[in-house]
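Input (structure):
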C-alpha cells in the first residue's frame, strides 16, 4: 500500500518561486509530499496569489501585528501549522529569524533553501559577496533548520559556475534555476525518510 503523503507547509515572505517549484513537483502522483498550506508573514507577498491560483490553502500570520514579541508571532504560526496537521515545513524565502523554541518544535522536519554553497556565504546578499570574493563556483543549498542561522545539516547542494561579466542579477538567476531543481529533490528525500 502507498504511504500517505506528508503534509507540507511552505513558509514565504515574497515572490515564492521556490514555493512554486515545490507545488509543481507535488502535482506528481508519485511524489511523497503534498503542499497542504502556504503561510506568509507578509500579507502582500506575491507568492500567496500564485498558491491560491493553484488551489492551495493559504494563511497570513503578519509578524507586524506582534510588534517585538517574536515568540507570540511564532506561537500563532505554530497554531496554524498544528490546525492543518502539518508534518514538514519548508522555508522558501521566509525572511524571519526563528527562535530556538520554534526550531525545536520542528527539529529534523523543517527545511530551508539558501542561495549559496554553505558553509560559504551565510546570511544575506550572497551573490554580491560571492562576486566580491572572486569565487569561480557558487550555488544553492537545502538544509535542515537548526537554532543557528544557515547552519543545519545539509540535505542537497547544486553548484553553478560564476562566469566572466556576471552581475549579482545574472548570477542570482543561474542560482535560482538550481534552487528550483534541488528543493523538490531534497523535500522528496526527507518526505520518504520521515
Ligand atoms: C531564494 O533565493 C532563496 O534561496 C532565498 O530567498 C530567495 C527566495 O526566492 N532564501 P523565492 O521567493 O523563492 O522566489
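Output (sequence):
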Amino acid at each position: 500500500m502507498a504511504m500517505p503523503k506528508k503534509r507540507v507547509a511552505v513558509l514565504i515572505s515574497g515572490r515564492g518561486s521556490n514555493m512554486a517549484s515545490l507545488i509543481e513537483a507535488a502535482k506528481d502522483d508519485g511524489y511523497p509530499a503534498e503542499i497542504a498550506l502556504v503561510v506568509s508573514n507578509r500579507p502582500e507577498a506575491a507568492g500567496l496569489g500564485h498558491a491560491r491560483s493553484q488551489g492551495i490553502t493559504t494563511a497570513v500570520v503578519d509578524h507586524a501585528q506582534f510588534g517585538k514579541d517574536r515568540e507570540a508571532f511564532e506561537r500563532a504560526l505554530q497554531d496554524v501549522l498544528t490546525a492543518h496537521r502539518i508534518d514538514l515545513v519548508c522555508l522558501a524565502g521566509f525572511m524571519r529569524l526563528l527562535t530556538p523554541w520554534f526550531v525545536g518544535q520542528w527539529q529534523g522536519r523543517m527545511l530551508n533553501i539558501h542561495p549559496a554553497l554553505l558553509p560559504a556565504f551565510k546570511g544575506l546578499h550572497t551573490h554580491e559577496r560571492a562576486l566580491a570574493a572572486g569565487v569561480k563556483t557558487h550555488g544553492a543549498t537545502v538544509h535542515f533548520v537548526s537554532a543557528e542561522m544557515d547552519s543545519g545539516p545539509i540535505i542537497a547542494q547544486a553548484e553553478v559556475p560564476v562566469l566572466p561579466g556576471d552581475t549579482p542579477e545574472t548570477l542570482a538567476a543561474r542560482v535560482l534555476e538550481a534552487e528550483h531543481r534541488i528543493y523538490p529533490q531534497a523535500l522528496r528525500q526527507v518526505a520518504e525518510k520521515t
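Notes: Residues 6-193 form a domain with the Rossmann fold fold (CATH 3.40.50.170). The helical segments are 17-25, 46-53, 70-83, 100-105, 126-133, 168-193.
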